[in-house]
Amino acid sequence: MHRIQNYIKEYHPIVHALILGTTLITLTSSMSMPFLAIFLSQSANLDFATIGFIIGIGPLAGTFCGLIGGVLSDFIGRKKLLLLSLIGLSIAFFGFITTTNILGLMFFSILRGLAQAFFGTVSKALMADLIPDSKRYKMFANRYLALNIGFSVGPMLGALLGIGGSTIAFVLTSFVYVIYAAVLYFMLRAVKDYDDSSVSEEGINITLLWNTLRSDVPLLLFIIGGTLLTTVHGQMSVTLSQHLQANIIDGVKLFAVLMSINGFTVLLLQIPLTRWSEHFTFVQRIALGCVLFTLGEIGFAFSISWIPFIISMLVFTLGEILVIPAEYAQVDEITPPNLRGAYYGAQSLGEFGNFVGPWFGGILLSMYGGTIMFLFMGVISLLGSYFFYLGKRNFRKKNGYHQTFK
Question: Is the pTM of the predicted complex or chain greater than 0.85?
Answer without folding.
Answer: no
